[in-house]
Structure formats: structure tokens, C-alpha cells
Automatic annotation (TrEMBL):
It comes from Amycolatopsis coloradensis. It comes from the Bacteria. This is FliA/WhiG family RNA polymerase sigma factor.
Length: 311
């Protein structure tokens, strides 16, 4: 009697724990790929009858479909078949990325780990040899984990020698703490590491460069808003208060100009908006330049009085 397959493990790896890991390593189906289930219907035992519904297929039929895809890919490596295998085993990448991401700094995005793991999965599919009788899930999880770790190392600007010394110092602190039942001094830690105190303090300075904290986390410490956009000033941004004040000043000025006499409005308009000189304005109005200067002075005084009155 064939057993019905367990539900596909699409959930986050932490929701399944060790059960999901053992299920993946034992070759259990990780997803219900429609291409795979279609292949399972075509290769199921008992003839070439129509494929049954996905929910009615047994775990044996799904495994048969995967084996058929592997045979097809081994005989003739094709990108379409490879993509079907990648789609079927994609939940492995999410699971491994979740396990690797546990304990990493907060600035490391799990999405970037998944992207790196996909390359490891593709490489595992292309290099896997089904004839050797190994479980692909176990082999793929190692390749995915290796691809993620390689990508993390390539992005690390700290030399590996410094990382190695940091781990050695942490282990020495644990040993001394357990032996002395207290926090060891710098001299005691230097003696445990067989280095001088000056070298230890120099090493502390190098270790400061390895500590990374997200700028948003640093700015938002103790605040309700965690958005960096709400914190950093934009010197090029327009001040909305200044815009409102300018609009209000323009409105008051327009009202004050509207209350001038017609000749004063013409002088103001030609001088400030048309950029004409006093002599050119005099030719337009048929008066002398000195008369235009008098009209301009009178108009400015009246405008100033109107604006002060409105204020």
C-alpha cells in the first residue's frame, strides 16, 4: 500500500526544524512542481493512461517523475529539463539559506543568500551523477551551502587571517573564563595567546574594523521612527514653509499693485517685469526720465505702505 506524500515544504525552514532537514536529506519531495507531476503521470506504472490529478498522485509517482527527468537530463543535458529540476529543488535553497543566515549580522539580506544558493543548486544539478547511487538532496545541500559561504567570503573586506585570530581569541577567552571563573585581564589573555600585550591591543584595533552596524539601526536607536529618510536632511529639498511664505507674499504684492493708479501700475510693470530703463519708460509714456523716476518712487512708497498695512 503506497503512502500519500507529505505536504510540500514551502514554509520557512525554521517552521520545520530538524524534521525538514531529515526529510530533505532522505530524498522526500520538497515541492509540487507541475512539470514534475506531469512527468510522473507519463511514467507511472501501469501503462500510458492519462495523468491523474496532482492531489491524487502518490509519493512513488512523484519520485518516478523526478527519476525520469534525471534520466532525460543525463542522456541529453537540456536547459529546459535543468530548469524543471531547479524548480523542483528550489525549496532546498530557501531552507539552506535560512539555516546559514541564522546568526549572521542584520545587514546580510537572506534574499542575497538565496540568490547565491541558486547558483550552487544549478552547479549541483550539472555535476550530479545519479549512477553513483547518492541522494541528490544531501549532495545539493552541501553545494548550496558552499556557494553561499563563498559569496559571503568574497564580500568580506576583512582579511581571513584577522577572522582566524578573532576566533582564536574568542576560544581563549572562553577557556580562561571557565578556568578563572571571571573575566580575564589583557595580560592573562595575551599570555594565553602567547603574544605581547601591545600586540593584543593592536589586534583589538584591527577587530574594531570587523564590526558592522546598519546606519538605520544606529540612527533609530531609542526612536519611534526607524526610517533613515526621515532622519537625514536634504539640503537640496524645497522648504514647504518657504514656498507658502513666498506664495503669500506674491499674493499680497499683487493685491497692492492692483490698488495703484493706472500710470503707477504701468511704471512698475515696465520697470520690474519688462526690464525697461527709466528713459525707455519715459518714451513709452511721453514724459521725461526725471518724471518717470518720480512716478517710480511714488509707486514704490505706495506699495510699501500697502504691504505694511496688510501685514
Amino acid at each position: 500500500m503506497t503512502r500519500r506524500p507529505e505536504p510540500a515544504a514551502h514554509a520557512h525552514p525554521h517552521e520545520h526544524g530538524e524534521h525538514a532537514e531529515s526529510h530533505a536529506e532522505n530524498g522526500g519531495p520538497m515541492t509540487a512542481d507541475p512539470h514534475v507531476t506531469e512527468a510522473a503521470g507519463k511514467h507511472r506504472p501501469g501503462g500510458d493512461g492519462p495523468a491523474v490529478a496532482p492531489e491524487a498522485r502518490t509519493g512513488y509517482e512523484v519520485d518516478a517523475g523526478i527519476q525520469a527527468l534525471w534520466r532525460e537530463f543525463t542522456e541529453s543535458p537540456d536547459q529546459i529539463v535543468r530548469d524543471r529540476l531547479v524548480l523542483h529543488y528550489a525549496p532546498l535553497v530557501k531552507y539552506v539559506a535560512g539555516r546559514v543566515g541564522t546568526g549572521l549580522p542584520t545587514h546580510v539580506d537572506v534574499g542575497d543568500l538565496i540568490q547565491s544558493g541558486i547558483f550552487g543548486l544549478v552547479d549541483a544539478i550539472e555535476k550530479f551523477e545519479p549512477a553513483r547511487g547518492l541522494r541528490f538532496e544531501t549532495y545539493a545541500m552541501q553545494r548550496i551551502r558552499g556557494a553561499i559561504l563563498d559569496d559571503l567570503r568574497s564580500q568580506d573586506w576583512v582579511p581571513r587571517a584577522v577572522r582566524s585570530k578573532a576566533r582564536e581569541a574568542e576560544r581563549a577567552l572562553e577557556r580562561l573564563g571557565a578556568r578563572l571563573n571571571r573575566t580575564p585581564t589583557d595580560a592573562e589573555l595575551a599570555a594565553e595567546l602567547e603574544i605581547s600585550v601591545d600586540d593584543l591591543r593592536e589586534f583589538y584595533g584591527q577587530m574594531q574594523l570587523t564590526s558592522v552596524i546598519a546606519l538605520e539601526d544606529l540612527v533609530a536607536a531609542g526612536k519611534d521612527s526607524g526610517s533613515l529618510v526621515d532622519t537625514l536632511p536634504d539640503d537640496g529639498a524645497v522648504d514647504p514653509v518657504a514656498v507658502l511664505v513666498d506664495q503669500d507674499n506674491r499674493r499680497q504684492l499683487a493685491q497692492a499693485i492692483a490698488q495703484l493708479t493706472e500710470r503707477d501700475r504701468i511704471v512698475v510693470g515696465l520697470y520690474y517685469f519688462e526690464s525697461l530703463t527709466l528713459a525707455e519708460i519715459g518714451k513709452v509714456l511721453g514724459v521725461t526720465e526725471s518724471r518717470v523716476s518720480q512716478l517710480h518712487t511714488r509707486a514704490v512708497m505706495r506699495l510699501r505702505a500697502k504691504l505694511v498695512e496688510q501685514a
